[in-house]
Specification:
Elements: E1 2-6, E2 14-15, E3 18-19, H1 21-37, E4 42-46, H2 57-73, E5 77-81, H3 88-91, H4 95-100, E6 103-106, E7 114-118, E8 121-128, H5 133-139, H6 147-155, E9 163-169, E10 171-173, E11 197-199, E12 208-212, E13 218-220, E14 222-227, E15 244-249, E16 255-260, E17 267-272, H7 274-278, E18 286-291, H8 300-305, E19 311-316, H9 337-349, H10 355-370
Parallel strand pairs: 1-4, 4-5, 5-6, 8-9, 9-12, 10-11, 12-14, 17-18, 18-19
Antiparallel strand pairs: 1-15, 2-3, 7-8, 13-14, 15-16
Length: about 375
């Protein structure tokens, strides 16, 4: 049985003021090609399907497009859970209808596995969506104190007969050798200070564990316990990473490989002097600029966007440049509003205001006085 492990789609996400819907569709189309070419049997989505609890119409349409392609055009099965970014109640709507179409969405925990068969026999899939500690105390056991307690309770009756796969959304860590630096800092933690971690040793009896929540593709303690990571970049911290999805061939001896997803537009970090950066080749990529100038640049972003239309942010390598900026000293007591504005304009733009603009300002002032 061939499985494709996805997670953290974050459909509808923005970077700066830009929507990533176009890039997300491009990447999902690449994944559809993999599903077809690799003859995938089951697509697993380990939570954070959407970027917000109330997804935009564009994000909903894109997800529907992807699922309908997988289920109806390719006749494949989909197993999906809600993550901490998702609304479990919204995703759980029409569960019975979806299951009749081979789309198995779990927003509310169900202890019963979903079982499929191949030539080797049954494979039991256990789906555990994200659940907060407070909700677990109310719905599962009032004695629960942490995320490890949640999983101890939910996994306690599993017999591990035949082959078993877990799909869940959590921060799994070997608590006997805990390293909080492993946590991807561009994620909103489920709790403060790493207290969202749960003990990965509880997962060792599964044949494969499809994890969601952390954005970097990696395994935890054992190669069979794995984060697929995001299918595209969502942070400039990932500018130098290649993004992948995870293919799992669930035979007697499990075979796992990562397949790269090339982006429509990449993420870049460019460093250097402002005017040197302006001389660089133009790009449609999303770019974070780190300026190495010893003074602030007026209208730097506007000037950069003329050549780099997807410029996202500007920072200065030397933060002390903000303390070197020229001071604004305007005599507001002895000047009229037009004179004050003219001096402010010169301060900000480092040039005199144009005569045509000055005439327009005076007309506006006259109209205001009449009213």
């Amino acid at each position: 049985m061939k499985l494709l492990h996805l997670s953290d789609l974050h459909l509808g996400k923005n970077i700066g003021s830009y929507s990533l819907i176009e890039e997300q569709k491009y990447a999902l189309d690449k994944i559809l090609e993999i599903i077809k070419d690799e003859d995938i049997d089951v697509v697993m989505i380990a939570g954070d399907i959407f970027d917000t609890n109330i997804a935009s119409s564009e994000a909903l349409e894109l997800y529907s497009y992807f699922i309908e392609k997988v289920v109806f055009s390719f006749n494949k099965k989909v197993l999906a859970i809600s993550g901490n970014h998702d609304s479990s109640k919204r995703l759980d709507i029409n569960r019975k209808f979806y299951r009749s179409q081979n789309y198995y969405m779990v927003g509310k925990y169900d202890p019963n596995p979903i079982t499929f068969y191949d030539f080797l026999g049954p494979v039991n899939f256990y789906l555990i969506p994200f659940i907060s500690i407070n909700k677990a105390k109310t719905e599962i056991d009032s004695n629960i104190e942490n995320f490890t307690d949640i999983y101890k309770k939910l996994l306690e009756n599993i017999k591990y007969k035949d082959r078993n796969v877990l799909i869940t959304h959590a921060y799994a860590s070997d608590l006997s050798n805990f390293d909080e630096k492993e946590y991807n800092l561009d994620q909103k933690p489920l709790n403060i200070g790493g207290s969202d971690a749960m003990d990965v040793n509880l997962f060792m009896n599964f044949d494969y564990v499809a994890l969601g929540h952390l954005h970097r593709a990696h395994y935890v303690k054992d190669p069979k316990i794995r984060y697929s990571g995001t299918f595209m970049k969502y942070s400039f911290d990932e500018a130098n990473l290649k993004k992948t999805v995870t293919l799992v061939d669930l035979k007697k001896d499990i075979n796992i490989k990562k397949l790269e997803i090339s982006p429509l537009r990449d993420f870049e970090v460019r460093e250097g002097k402002f005017f040197d950066l302006l001389k660089q080749k133009s790009s449609e990529n999303y770019i974070k600029f780190v300026l190495e100038d010893d003074f602030t640049i007026e209208n730097a972003m506007a000037k950069l966007k003329e050549k780099f239309p997807k410029a996202v942010s500007i920072t200065y390598a030397n933060r002390s440049v903000f303390n070197k900026s020229k001071s604004l000293d305007i005599d507001i007591e002895n000047k009229d509003i037009i004179e004050i504005f003219s001096e402010f304009y010169k301060y900000k733009m480092d040039e005199e205001i144009k005569d045509d603009d000055l005439v327009l300002l005076k007309r506006i002032e006259q109209c205001d006085q009449k009213n």
